[in-house]
Specification:
The chain is built from seven helices and nine strands. The strands form two sheets. Strands 5-4-3-6-7-9-8 form a seven-stranded mixed beta sheet, with helices on both faces. Strands 1-2 form a two-stranded antiparallel ribbon. Helix 2 runs parallel beside helix 3 and helix 6 runs parallel beside helix 7 (170-183). 40% of the residues are buried. The protein has helices at residues 7-16, 37-49, 64-73, 96-103, 117-126, 142-155, 170-183; strands at 18-20, 27-29, 54-58, 81-85, 110-113, 131-136, 156-165, 186-191, 199-203. The protein has a single domain (7-203), classed as Rossmann fold (3-Layer(aba) Sandwich), CATH 3.40.50.150.
Length: 219
């Protein structure tokens, strides 16, 4: 573990379930917005298993998922980095996500993009960016999560991982179903242990997309 990492920050945050924002002194209960420890551990394990060096996240929030992801990235090499997309970081979350990452010694790994994901993701695609793993926990309406997973499927390397939070919600489950039935993705792992946060780990298609122009499978 790099000397700069301070895992006790994550442990304390998960134990206490709250944080005080240094930006304005506001006190925040992190649950049920934030993912729990078991989902975070699964996310970190998948990042390690995939040898991920570049990850991307929609929905930084209170920074819990990023803490787990960046713990793996910090040991993956000097070129590792994480992009966190969150237009509400400075407002609703009062900068708490970046605060906990800084406290944990992981902020240098993170590039915060404070734009809506429907704007930020196409921009990253236009820049030719590529990632090994993605985590989705942003807009949970169908149109929002659908755009997130489809764009992330283009940003993640072929055969890469897209992990989706809140899979118990119908809109999220339907977006996942589209990707499985129409894009050739597979569900590698899923959990229903936490009733507030089901999650699914999707592997994108390894082969190029050769569907005909009128291809469609009901989902």
């Amino acid at each position: 573990m790099p000397a700069s990492q301070r895992p006790e920050v994550r442990e304390r945050l998960l134990r206490d379930g709250e944080i005080v924002a240094r930006s304005d002194g506001s006190r925040h209960s992190i649950f049920p917005v934030a993912i729990g420890a078991r989902e975070g551990q699964a996310l970190e394990a998948w990042a390690r298993r995939e040898g991920a060096q570049r990850s991307i996240e929609v929905g930084l929030g209170y920074g819990v998922a990023a803490l787990f992801l960046c713990a793996a990235l910090a040991e993956a090499g000097p070129d590792s980095g994480h992009v966190a997309i969150d237009p509400n970081q400075a407002t609703r979350f009062a900068g708490c996500g970046i605060q906990v990452l800084a406290d944990a010694g992981l902020a240098d790994l993170v590039d915060l993009v404070e734009e809506p994901s429907e704007i930020a993701l196409p921009g990253l695609l236009a820049e030719g960016r590529e990632f090994d793993l993605a985590f989705v926990d942003g807009n949970h309406r169908f149109d929002g999560v659908f755009l997130d997973v489809v764009y992330l499927g283009r940003l993640v390397r072929r055969g890469g991982i897209v992990m989706v939070d809140d899979h118990q919600l119908p809109a999220v489950a339907r977006a996942v179903s589209f990707c499985v039935r129409n894009l050739g993705w597979s569900i590698e792992e899923a959990s229903t242990d936490d009733p507030r946060h089901h999650w699914a780990v999707l592997r994108t298609a390894a082969a190029p997309d050769t569907r005909p122009y009128d291809h469609f499978v009901d989902f």
